[in-house]
Fold this protein.
Amino acid sequence: MANVAITGAGRGIALELVKLHLAKGDRVFALLRDPDGADALRGVAAGSGGKVTLHAMDVADDASVRAGAADTGDAAIDVLYNVAGVSGSTDSELESANFADWLDVFNVNVNGPMRVFQAFLPRLGSGAKVVSFGSQVGASTWPYPGYEAYSASKAALHRLMVSVALGTKDRGIIAISVHPGWVQTDMGGPAAELTPLESAQGIAALAQRLTPEMSGGFYKWNGETHAW
Ligand SMILES: NC(=O)c1ccc[n+]([C@@H]2O[C@H](COP(=O)([O-])OP(=O)(O)OC[C@H]3O[C@@H](n4cnc5c(N)ncnc54)[C@H](OP(=O)(O)O)[C@@H]3O)[C@@H](O)[C@H]2O)c1
C-alpha cells in the first residue's frame, strides 16, 4: 500500500488517479480547492472505507498549500501527483497579452507544484516519486502556436522538475514531468484522443515503474520519453 497525494483531485485526470489508486488499495490524500463542491470525489471517498480523504488546497496560495498539507497528517508520501493546472487564454496573445492572466497561469502551473513539493518535502523519503503534469505544448519540439502563457508555464515546470530531480538526488527522490496526452476533460474538450481513465492508467503505470535513473525526465502518458 502506498500513500498518494493528488492535487486538483475533484475532476479530470486527477479524479481518475484517485479511483485507480484506491482500487490498488492505496491511501489517497485528495487535495482540491473546494471539497464541499466535489460530488463525484466525495462519493468515491464515502465508499472507500477511509482510504480516500479530502483536503482543501488551492495551489495558488501559500497558506492554503501549507494548511492543506498539514491537514493530511504526517505520514510519509510515496507518490505526489501535481495535477492541478489552468490553461489561461486560448487565443494567441502575441500582439496583446493579458499579463495579469499570465501571472495567474504561472502561479498555478509553476509556483503551485513548487509550493506543493516544498510542503510535502519533509515527508518524501528515498524512493518517493513526484509526478508533475506538464504538456507537449511546453516542448520546443512541438509546433503548436498560441497558448503562449500556458506553453511557457509548462516549459518552466518541466525545467523545474529537472532542478527538483538534481537537488533531491542524494535523498533518493524521483521527480519527473509527464504529458498526459490530449484528454477528454474540461481542459482538453470532448474531441480529445484519450479518456481521463486511459491517461490516468498510463501515468499510474509509469509512476509505478519509475527508477532513479529516470528522474528529471519528461515522459508521455504511455511511458515513452517525450522530446523537449
Ligand atoms: N486535458 C488535456 O488534454 C491536457 C493536455 C496536456 C496537459 N494537461 C495537464 O494535465 C493536468 C490535468 O488536466 P485536466 O485535463 O484533468 O484538467 P481539468 O479537467 O480542467 O482539471 C483541472 C484541475 O485543476 C484544478 N485547479 C485549477 N486551479 C487550481 C488551483 N489554483 N488549486 C487547486 N486546483 C486547481 C481544478 O480544480 P477546480 O475544480 O477547483 O477548478 C481541476 O481539478 C493539468 O495540469 C493540465 O495542464 C491536460
